[in-house]
Write a structure and sequence with these properties.
The protein is mainly beta. The protein has three helices and 20 strands.
Length: 238
Amino acid sequence: MAERIGDGVWTLQGEKVTLPVQITSARFTAAVFTTRSEQARSVLAGTPLRPFSVFGRAITMIMCIHYDEFALKSYDEVGVGLLVRGPSGPPGLHLVDLPVTGAFTREAGQNFWALPKWLMDADLRFSKMETDVVVRDRVTEVVRASFRHGRVRLPFAVQAALPAWSYLDHGAQAGRLLRGQVPMQLSGARLGRGAFRVRLDDDHPMATRMKALGMTRKPFLTVHADRLHGPLGEFTEV
C-alpha cells in the first residue's frame, strides 16, 4: 500500500510522488447519459452519496482516456460514473468503476484519491471521428463500445476543473468521504450527439452498473478532445 510521508507527498512502489501531479497530455472521449434516479441510487448503495437529479433523472458518464507519460506512467483508463451530492458542497462526479492498464496508477488511484481502479486488459483506439474501446477482466470481455465524435469543433480551449466525490472501502483512504477536482482542460474539443454502440457482458459487475446507469442507449452528449491536461491534486476528507 502507498504511504503518506508528508503533505501531498506519498511513496509508492519505491518511488516518491508529490501532489499535485501534472497531466501533460492525454486523449479523451466521453458520453453523457441519463437514468432514473432510483437506478442511480442503487449503484451508490454503501456510500454516503446520493444522485444529483434533474426532473427525476440522474446524469451519468463513461470516459475513455489514454495518458501519455507523466508521474503515474502511461496507461489507458475507462471511467464509469455519475453526478452526485455529498453532505455539503456542490454536485460532483463520482466514479463507480475505473479500470486501468497500469499497476502503478491502480495503487495510486486507490490510495491517494480513493478511486475504484482495477487492472484491465484493453484495446483503446482513437481515430479522427470515432473512439473504440474493449475492456477485458482476465478472459471476460466486459465492454465493447464505439463513440462517434460530435461534429461541432470548439474554436477555443476549455479551461475547467470538474468537482469530484470519492469513497472506497479499501486502501489508505478506506471509509473516508473525499472531495476534490479533476482537470478538464481540453484542446481540440468536439461536441455533439454522436452515435454510440455498446455490447455488455451479462454478469460482470461493471457491466451491470453501466446498464443501471443508462449506458445501453444513445447518449444526449458526446465530448472528444485531442488533448486533456492539467493538475490533479489531493482530495480532502469531508
